[in-house]
Amino acid sequence: MSLDFFPGLDDLQSAGAKQQQLHEQAAAVARRHFGRKVFVRAVIEISNFCRENCEYCGMRRDNRDLRRYRFKLDELADLIIHQRPSSITDINLQAGEDPIAVRDIAIPLIKIIREKTPLGVSVCLGTLNESLYAELQNAGASTYIIKFETGSPKLYARRQSPGTFEERVGHICHLQDKGWNVSSGFICGLPDETDADLLNNFTVASQLPLDGCSVSPYIAGEATPLAKNSNCSIDLALNCMASLRLMRPDWVIPAVSALNLAGGTCGYQRGLATGANLVTINMTPTNERGEYLLYKRNRFIMTEDRVLSAIEAEGLEPSTESLAEFYRNASVVNFK
Ligand code: 5AD
């Protein structure tokens, strides 16, 4: 498809009035496409075991100091059926790359969720084999979240991201081909990212068969080989989000919790002012939350209150239509 907009470095590095204009345009495009509605989902981080070794991630397998956990199926089923925040329409099950958790927790839990609740189900469980993907889909999940991490195959390899860049893209295409709604994403400001790499994130995103895409500001994670590097600036992250929105007005773009760690105040809320249209309430039981170490132990946990306040502060409203329904309806319109 032809793009209305493709960012240049001057957009991504903009400041002052030009930056403000970029953000306002992005917010206006999001409103034109989605109205004032913002999708509200919850995430449960079902396991922090991981067989991968991404240099930027605190859950990498070489981090032997991290206590690993897997939740009990019954505990999570009870939490979702009886104790979920009333504002959520969808749930995202997330884990390190842990096929055991997929089989023992995610697949049976999805069946329970679909039977006992109206929630749409997304999963973010890493690169798995085709039969596990099929089992997840048959259980009732409809969106797969799988980030391409960086648009540079060389940097992808250097940071020890899962498999190869080409394989990751292959998984994204396979999932889309099998009828999943696929949301991907990249980390901006990864150590050693060049200007060309930064721009390439947009080239790759524009070429993939996606329904959504996220921008995560790089956060120097504790207990990683990159701990001494500096975080991505909030400005670069927001400029990337605004650019993504202008490039693809129709995509679902989340405000990620790392925006709160990238510096400045109200990073998350600023994400909503920059074209994001999806927020996430963290529903991971508190006893293990600290061990889900993407970035730092001192996480900024998005509670229902914080999420709803950010939505309200931007003059927006929680959507009552689920993401899963939205995608289903969109695919009818687009004959996808
Ligand atoms: N900074 C930003 N994003 C990160 N992720 C993992 N570690 C970091 C970090 N230090 C993102 C990756 C991964 C997702 C689950 O979290 O994009 O795919």
CATH topology: TIM Barrel
Content-based structural category: alpha/beta
User: Which stretches are low in confidence, meaning pLDDT under 50 for 5 or more residues running?
Assistant: none
Assign a percent range to the helix content: 40-55%
User: What is Rg?
Assistant: 18 Å
- Number of helical regions: 13
CATH architecture assignment: Alpha-Beta Barrel
The fraction of residues assigned to DSSP E strands is 5-15%
Main sheet attributes: strand count, strand direction, barrel closure: 8 strands, parallel
The number of strands is 8
Identify the overall geometry.
Answer: globular
Short description:
The protein is an alpha/beta fold. The protein has 13 helices and 8 strands.
Keywords:
336 residues; alpha/beta; TIM Barrel; 8-stranded parallel beta sheet; 13 helices; binds 5'-deoxyadenosine
Describe this structure in words.
The chain is globular. Helix 2 (16-34) crosses helix 9. The longest helix is centred in the first third of the chain and has 19 residues, at 16-34. It has one domain (9-335): TIM Barrel, CATH 3.20.20.70. The protein is built from 13 helices and 8 strands. Strands 1, 2, 3, 4, 5, 6, 7 and 8 form an 8-stranded parallel sheet that branches. It is an alpha/beta fold. The mean pLDDT is 96. 5'-deoxyadenosine binds at residues 56-57, 147, 149, 185, 187, 216, 218-219, 221, 258, 294-295.
Write the layout of secondary structure elements.
Layout: H1 9-12, H2 16-34, E1 37-47, H3 73-83, E2 90-95, H4 99-116, E3 120-124, H5 130-139, E4 143-145, H6 153-158, H7 165-177, E5 181-188, H8 195-207, E6 212-217, H9 234-247, H10 267-272, E7 278-282, H11 286-289, H12 304-313, E8 317-318, H13 323-333
Parallel strand pairs: 1-2, 1-7, 1-8, 2-3, 3-4, 4-5, 5-6
The structure holds 5'-deoxyadenosine (5AD).
Residues 56-57, 147, 149, 185, 187, 216, 218-219, 221, 258, 294-295 line the site of 5'-deoxyadenosine.
